[in-house]
């Protein structure tokens, strides 16, 4: 099991009162070209607690904070007009979310909880998750800082970049594509484009950055294994 030290709370950004299923979220994420649902747990409209992406797999729910976190999402987060952010948690959802967070905390010894809006310019989850649940977690009050994902991106340089370029070339060779003109240890425009090509081929977030999911997918690719799928289809 991978080390987990944080829970990040999300909303589905769907209108108040609308049920959302795991299969539906999985379809949305696949339509974006991803490997399926990026959240690990889903809280339904009636307080259902559903499993999403397996807990032992890195999520795809918060850029830069996926490797050691769990993503928990509740159905809702937008008013009935379909656009205005709103805390739409009903009593059943609020209770189910509390139980879910407590169980995950105890199971994995998690120290910190955050809302998605603390790491991204988004309203999600449409309420102050830290304020609501901070009393459950000891990390924030003790100055706990989670370890961020190690990410390579355009402009970076060094041996890790050179190694990633070599891995891109090796991947191209395994799929019968010509070797790109990539030399040196600078993550330049060509390296970014090649990374995006790899990500699109493997159906993960195609942002041109090399984070934990992209590295994991490269390991699978070089081992001759198919792309990771969040859920069995």
Could you describe the 3D structure shown?
A hairpin with a 5-residue loop joins strand 3 (41-43) and strand 4. This protein starts with 5 loop residues before the first strand and ends in an 11-residue tail after the last helix. With 233 residues, it is an alpha/beta fold. It has two domains: 6-142, Lysozyme-like (3-Layer(aba) Sandwich); 159-222, Muramoyl-pentapeptide Carboxypeptidase, domain 1, CATH 1.10.101. Helices cover 32% and strands 11% of the residues. The mean pLDDT is 91.
- Strand percentage lies at 5-15%
Residue share in helix: 25-40%
What structural class is derived from the secondary structure elements?
A: alpha/beta
Radius of gyration: 19 Å
Largest sheet composition: 5 strands, mixed
Amino-to-carboxy terminus distance: 23 Å
Overall CATH architecture of the largest domain: 3-Layer(aba) Sandwich
Series of secondary-structure elements, N-terminal to C-terminal: EEHEEEEHEHHHH
Low-confidence stretches: none
Per DSSP, the total helix count is 6
Domain count: 2
Number of strands: 7
Shape: globular
Q: What topology does this entry show?
A:
Elements: E1 6-11, E2 14-15, H1 22-31, E3 41-43, E4 49-51, E5 69-74, E6 77-78, H2 91-108, E7 112-115, H3 129-133, H4 159-174, H5 189-202, H6 212-222
Parallel strand pairs: 1-5, 1-7, 2-6, 3-5
Antiparallel strand pairs: 3-4
